[in-house]
User: Fold HD-GYP domain-containing protein (C-di-GMP phosphodiesterase class II) from Anoxybacteroides tepidamans.
Amino acid sequence: MMANDLVYQVKTMRELRVDDIVLHPIYRPDGLLFVKKYKKLTESVIKHIKKHFPLDYPLLVVESEEQLQQFLQFKQENEEEIYEQFQKLLTVHQKYMHIPLSMEMYDEQLVKRKKETKDKQEEFFKRIHPNVFMPMWRIFEQTFDSLRMLQRMKRLNEQLNDIISKDEAIFALFNRMYHYHDVLVVHSLNTMCLSLMIGVALELSDEEIIDLALAALFADIGFTEVPKEEFVHYLNSGKRNQELIKEHLRLSVEVISTSPHCRRKSIVYGILDHHEEYGGTGFPNKKQKEQIHLFGRIIAIAQLYDELVGGYVKEESRLSFEALEEVWKQGGAKMDPNIIRIFVDKSRIYKVGEWVRLPNNELAQVIGFKDYMRYPLHPIVKKRNGEIYDFSIRL
Assistant:
């Protein structure tokens, strides 16, 4: 659909072309970040998006950098029109999400701020906050039923924003990732969100939660010391370069040392241990079970789930429930089964009353389980046509 002499277009998934530039962030059905705002779409990215959404799913796009600059000027002069366009998109997109969406998640400039921000904090909120921490808070709102936990998470969210925006060294580390490669920054942010969800469920202290967040956020920052071409090859090859895995752990700890806060032992060990495996076959020291730092065990689970859904490795992506099932299978051998259980229980996927998207893009609602304690990933669902499907038949 054309708009305003091609200043921007509303395109469905089937109409997307390589090099189209999306004018808003794209969020996955689980609420995590999929594609950054103003991202130029590649064939691979379009393929991943199509796996998660139907062909009539709409996006607001332009077709060139020149049109992007025209759109930005047009938006300043026609905020009401663009606001309405985003509202229309939001209404459609909400049908496919596990969390409620908001305008802040699409474009912060169209939403009035309650308070002014200055200097580095202003730059942080302008460039990063709307695409990251708003959706993070929405995820927590839908995850925790306890008012106490919600209030605590809101306070921690504010503390984390404050630390990253005001600490010059930490802000510089984030900018380093932000300008390196989209995959690294999106994956790191999503890993942080998921790690925080697990950490709060484990009743970690406020100080531990903040340190966990920073360990998760910067777990892979060492890759910024590697040429981008080598990083892309590492992903496309299925992360088979064991020497690079070991090297990026060393480099990550070295890079974060520019921040006094990030030199804390828990952050360092969280980064060093996130490639260790519960059964003792991981890197770099073949630690096992509780020898692996708690942060490392948490980050490993968060990273695997996000990698599978995001499609960063070998350009293969899975639906949220498929990724959750793969994580579940790793319990005991590669990952801490107790933490995996907490992750599954806190996930919005496969909960009674929730809607799930089947591999054929058909929607179905979870209506119950035969045995949730033993098989929490095998619900009984009801399709829109009334047909009942029991996931346990795959056992």
